[in-house]
Amino acid sequence: MSAERERLEQRKALLVARSELERMQLALTVHRLRERVAPDARKGAEDGASRPARIAAAIVAVGVPLLGRRQLGRLLRGASIAMTAARVVRNWRG
Fold first, then answer.
1. Does the pTM exceed 0.70?
2. Which of 13, 17, 39, 63 could form a Cys-Cys staple with 72, CB 3.0–4.6 A?
3. Is 74 within 8 Å of 83 (Cβ atoms)?
4. Alpha carbons 82 and 77: distance in angstroms, whole number
5. Structural contact between residues 33 and 61, judged by C-beta atoms closer than 8 angstroms
6. Nearest C-alpha neighbor of 27 from the set 37, 17, 35
7. Which string of DSSP letters, residue by residue, matches the chain?
8. How far apart are CA 50 and CA 52, in angstroms?
């Protein structure tokens, strides 16, 4: 019985360590994404990329692993068509 309890305690410690590692990896990913989208004002625009370009790169970097290339493409295509239609309607009214 003691060996079983020891095995369970080791398994619990391993699961806790894995969850901490995943939490730290997620925090690092969020930090990197935040830097890419809204870099520190002190740094300036050293890389030459505009803010919309950085936002687009961040959306692709996060969207492809989450949704897949094909699904993200469909989503972005639909958003593009909707934005174009809204712009046409807005210009037509004004």
1. no
2. 63
3. no
4. 9
5. yes
6. 35
7. -HHHHHHHHHHHHHHHHHHHHHHHHHHHHHHHHHHHHS--TTT-STT---HHHHHHHHHHHHHHHHH-HHHHHHHHHHHHHHHHHHHHHHHHH-
8. 6
